[in-house]
Amino acid sequence: MATAVIMPKQGQSVETCIITKWFRSTGESVATGDILFSYETDKAAFDLESPADGILLDIFFGEGSEVPVLSNVAVIGKNGEATESFKPAGAALHVSAAEITREEIKAPSVGSVQNAPVEEMTGRIRISPRARKLAQEKGVDYRSLVGSGPNGRIVSADIEGAQAGIAAARAPGRPSGEEYTEKPLSNVRRLIAKAMHSSLQNSAQLTHHMSADVRKLLEARGKIKEKRAAGNTQPDITLNDMICWCVIRALEKFPEANSHFLDDRIKTFNKVHLGFAVDTQRGLMVPVVKNAGDMDLATLSAALKSSAEACKKGSISPELIQSTAATFTVSNLGNYGVEMFTPVINLPQVGILGVCTIINRPADLGNNVFGFAPYIGLSLTYDHRAIDGGPATLFLREIKEQIEAFSY
After folding, report:
1. pLDDT tens per residue, range 114-154
2. 197: exposed, middle or buried (Cβ count in 10 Å: 0-12, 13-18, 19+)
3. How many CB atoms lie within 10 A of CB 151?
4. Would the N or C end of the chain have less CB density within 10 A of its end CB?
């Protein structure tokens, strides 16, 4: 009996996945555990293994296809078994059963250019169905394009780039005559838009701003740099690591900020699971460091770096980027020179801290000496349904005091 190969559901918020590369072709024998294809969600990348032994009878979605989760992607069975009943609605728009061939998925031979094989030995140009449709709509001749997709496949981004080049060529050095351009929302942009709109629509968010003297943080950072320059095995602890450490200490004193608002109840956590914003090529991601309050500063620093790197590589676990996984979030825009901003809460969390840039301000330097001192901006957004203004201000002040009293 034939077995369907199903696109897994990776996390509650994932609705579609994109197939990035096929490793097997129709008609090929496969064994349980063999990798059939690679795919990615808006956040992470995965390999899918064969669920059964047999022949890969049919493939319904090709490389570059965006596939709804829990849809049939392919069929494995015995030669001669029918596959039509497994075919999901709309699959014909993406790939025909014969389109994924061994010639298409084999590795380039030595001496070949990785992105060059737009046209195979059969004479067929390798282009995704979506890119072909876009090319027809935009009037772009794709036959001479070099694809940037897997194994040189032309994808929609190549068509869009070619169209932009044509427009520029028509009017060198001048704006295009077109009034505007359009492009569909990416999967990650769509999810971010939905989450941000839902957060603002379904909560009562206010933001308080305060600043903290960071002379002690900068002094500690300077010592760390000196030790590392001298060849010491000192961990590279950053200012952001130190601030996250201070936030955790403040959360331990004000646990009401370490909570989830669940409409009819508030869940307050005994452990701090710290979320932090990471800018990636796919878009904004917020991974969580579990049990961050149990870590010393060096361990916390390593965990933050490891999670951020996993996000950028697309290998972060989907369970670690759910808004329910973190109990509080830190978003740092200081490197961009932002002096003040209003971060948006990751519901059902009740608060998020925005970390701003450092600015020199007049201050009492001690002994009746006045001068300029470095201050960092702190922007706390909180859900007024869960926390009142007074406790929120005291929590923000505690973060400030933790930063100003920091020692390492």
Report:
1. 343 333 333 457 676 667 778 888 888 877 777 766 556 67
2. exposed
3. 19
4. N
